[in-house]
Amino acid sequence: MNPSFETLNRIIAQRRSVFPESYTNQEIPREALAAILASANYAPTHKLTEPWRFVVFRSAGKTRFGAELARLYRASVTDAQFLQKKYDSILEKAARANVMVALNISYHPDKVPQWEEVAAMGCAVQNMALTAESLQIGAYWSSPAMIGELGPFLELGANEQCLGIFYMGYHEAAPREARRGPIEEKVRWIEE
C-alpha cells in the first residue's frame, strides 16, 4: 500500500482519548501547539465559513481557566448537590494539563445551517487529535456542563459558543485497543 495511507491509518487506529491524570510535566513546545492548531484549519467547511475559534490557555492562564470552570460548577449546583471531589477534580485537570484549548465556534446563520458548522468543528478537532497523536501528545475533548456559561469569560460574541475544552499533555498512558464493533455491522452496500 501507499506509505501515506499506512501512516495515516496507523495514527487513526492508535488515537485514543488520553486524560490529564496520565500527563507528565513535560512542556509542549509552542511549535507543536501551532502545528496542532494549524491542522484544524484544513477541516472541511461548507461555504468556507471556517467556524472554529480557539483560545489557548497555558501557564497562569490555564490556572485562571481552571479556577473559572470550578467557580462555574460551584455556582451551578445547590449546596446539597455540590461534590468537593468534583470541584477538586476540575482544578486538578487544569493543573495536570500542559495546555487547555477552549473550542469555540462562530456560527454563520446567513450562510449555512448550524449543524454544518458543528460538523466542521468536529472535523477540525479530529484533525487536532490526530496531529497530537502523531506528535505523541495525549489529548481529549471534554464538554462539561459549564461550557455553556463560558461566554463572558472567553469574550464570545453573539453568534459564538464554546463547544468544549481540548486538554493536552505529554503522557505515560499505556497504549490500549479500540473498543469498536465491526464496521461490517454499520455498513450496507447497494450495488444494483
TrEMBL record:
Its cofactor is FMN. InterPro entries: NAD(P)H_nitroreductase, Nitroreductase, Nitroreductase-like, YdjA-like. Keywords: Flavoprotein, FMN, NAD, NADP, Oxidoreductase. It holds the Pfam family Nitroreductase. GO terms for molecular function: oxidoreductase activity. Residues 12-170 form the Nitroreductase domain. PANTHER family: NAD(P)H NITROREDUCTASE YDJA-RELATED. Belongs to the nitroreductase family. This is Nitroreductase.
